[in-house]
Structure formats: C-alpha cells, structure tokens
Design a protein that fits this description.
Blueprint: E1 2-3, H1 6-28, E2 33-39, H2 43-59, E3 62-68, H3 74-86, E4 92-95, H4 105-111, H5 123-130, H6 139-150, E5 159-163, H7 170-178, E6 187-191, H8 198-203, E7 207-210, E8 228-231, E9 235-238, E10 246-249, H9 254-257, E11 263-264, H10 271-287
Bound molecules: nicotinamide-adenine-dinucleotide (NAD).
Nicotinamide-adenine-dinucleotide binds at residues 140, 163-166, 168-170, 191-193, 195, 198, 211-213, 232-235, 271-272, 275.
Length: 293
C-alpha cells in the first residue's frame, strides 16, 4: 500500500498558489480575497472555517470571517450575502454548512453570486460542471481530482464506486469521475443508503470513494485487492488522547484496508487538506477572472 499523502500534496500546491497570489497582488494591486460566513458555533464548523482562514493567510490571500448567532434571520443573512456580492473587493464567498433549521440552505446557496461561489455549490456552477464547461468545481471533489493527478493514478476505463450522494461530495464526484478528462473516464456507480448489495458493488470497485459519515464503514472484506481508496469521511469523537479533546476517524477501516489496497488516503491528513486546496484554487481563479470575467 502507498499513501495518498494530503499533507505533502497540499503543501506543494499551496507553494504554487502563494506564488500566483503574489503575482495577482503585483498586477492587480490587491490580494485574492475570500469571505466566509459562519452561523452559530458548531464545533466542526468552527474548526473547518478557522483552518480555511488560516490557510488563506498562509498563501497570501486576504480573508474575512463574518459571524452570526444561531438566531440570525434568513433575511439578514441573505442581505449580507447580497452586500458581499456587490463588493468588488471580494473574490470568493462561502457560507459554512450546516445552517440552523430556520434558514433554507438552498436559498442561501442560490443567493451567492455564482461568479464568487468558490465552494462550487451554486446550480449554475453544478450545471456547467455537468456540461464540462469552465466553472468552480466543489472544493472536496476538486481536491480529490488534484490528489489523483499529483500521484498520476490511472483512472481511465476503471470502475469507480462512490458511496454517498450528497450535493457537495458524492454526486459531483460521480459526474467528475465519469467525465472525458484526466482523471476521469471511469465507469461510475453512485451508491447510497438505499443501495442493495452494497458490499458486492464496492468489492467490484477499482476505485472507492467513501463519503458516508460513518466511522469504519468500509471494511476490508468490501475491498478488492489493489483498489485505490479515497476516504472523505470526517467523524469526530470525543477523546482524552488529544489536546483538542476529540479525534477524527474516516469512513474506512484504515488499519485493515491499508493491507489490501494499492493506494489510500489517511484521515486526518488526506482529503480534508485537499479540500482547502480546492477552495484556495477556486478563489485564486476568481481573483484572476479565469472562469468568469
Ligand atoms: P451527507 O452527510 O450529506 O450524506 C451521507 C451520504 O451517505 C448520503 O448520501 C447517504 O445516502 C449515504 N449513506 C448513509 N448511510 C449509508 C449506508 N448505510 N450505505 C450507503 N450509503 C449510505 O454526506 P456528505 O456531506 O458528503 O458527508 C459525508 C462525510 O464526508 C461526512 O463524514 C463529512 O463530515 C465528510 N466530509 C468531508 C469533507 C472533507 O473535506 N474531507 C468534506 C465534506 C464532507
């Protein structure tokens, strides 16, 4: 087994992004700028947003965090999004999910100007992705593609099984892996909670992409010898072993699956770090007006 090392790849790509951000500053007179909106104080969301902001600073982007209490109204949030849409000094805008129940995530997603939608969740970006047109690709699937590319993992003609059909990971991932591109050209099976014979289907996979949200869900008996395993899952458990007070686990039983597969992403240290790179690359592309003018 060889490791698909998110730490190594993300650091390498962040160096490239840093150089490009400096060039943007030199030519446009300002840094690429990402704004994040965080509602409430969910522990996971706090950590993800803090890491996104920290990484922006690392690569020479400006970053702004706007926080609201859980009690913020949908209207107030939508008005703020509109204000940021109009701000010519902002290149990217993300709203950290999940949102409180009284706020419709669809309304929020659609309110963000698709030209600043660096999370790639807006229907225009998803539609353009479907048609293989330039767009912001959702950050996690984008990060996975960058990882596969970096390690020159052959995907053409192979059977890729995606587990989980969320709008932010599983569904776009399945489309991207089937596209006529490199990485891509897979025969894709998209599976979910209602899939019958899941174990059998996963066992037939050359490439497994697990985005379920259940610790150690993919066990060694579900994995074909030599498969490539991408573990998207982030499952937080309270722990006395770590300084932060919790420990992260993937959706894959890493210890046992690692003995059987050809390549595997660790958790932590895999897809999560690449998601940030996907977000940074989208923000940079927005600042450079590479996708939308
Ligand atoms: P989700 O939580 O919205 O949905 C889970 C998916 O798993 C659903 O589509 C469901 O059909 C499927 N599922 C549930 N039980 C199943 C079963 N028994 N058999 C087959 N499929 C089953 O999905 P999400 O938002 O993509 O999140 C999935 C995991 O990925 C979570 O752990 C999340 O924290 C993590 N995640 C990680 C990153 C990252 O950067 N690494 C980014 C996004 C999400």
């Amino acid at each position: 087994m060889q490791l698909l090392d998110g730490k190594y790849v993300s650091e390498k790509l962040k160096q490239e992004i840093t150089a490009e951000a400096a060039a943007v500053l030199a030519t446009r007179g300002r840094q690429p700028h990402l704004v994040a909106i965080l509602v409430g104080n969910d522990g996971g969301s706090e950590t993800y947003v803090a890491s996104k902001m920290k990484n922006c600073q690392k690569v020479g982007f400006k970053s702004t965090l706007i926080r609201y209490d859980n009690s913020v109204s949908e209207e107030e949030l939508l008005n703020k999004i509109e204000e940021i849409n109009q701000d010519t000094e902002v290149d990217g805008l993300i709203v950290q999910l999940p949102l409180p129940k009284h706020i419709d995530p669809e309304k929020v997603t659609e309110k963000i100007d698709y030209r600043k939608d660096v999370d790639g969740f807006h229907p225009i970006n998803l539609g353009r992705m479907m048609r293989n047109l330039p767009c912001f690709i959702p950050a996690t699937p984008y990060g996975i593609l960058l990882m596969l590319k970096e390690y020159k993992i052959e995907t053409s003609g192979l059977h890729c099984v995606v587990i989980g059909r969320s709008n932010i990971v599983g569904s776009p991932m399945s489309i991207l892996m089937a596209r006529d591109a490199k990485p891509g050209n897979c025969t894709v099976t998209l599976t979910h909670s209602k899939t019958r014979n899941l174990n059998e289907i996963v066992r037939s996979a050359d490439i497994i992409i697990a985005a379920i949200g259940k610790k150690n869900f993919i066990t060694v008996d579900m994995v074909k010898e030599g498969a490539v395993v991408i573990d998207v899952g982030i499952n937080r458990e309270v722990s006395t072993e770590t300084k932060s007070g919790y420990k992260l686990y993937g959706d894959v039983d890493f210890k046992n699956v690692a003995q059987k597969c050809s390549w595997i992403t660790p958790v932590p240290g895999g897809v999560g770090l690449m998601t940030i790179v996907g977000l940074l690359k989208n923000t940079l592309a927005s600042a450079k007006k590479e996708i939308y003018s």
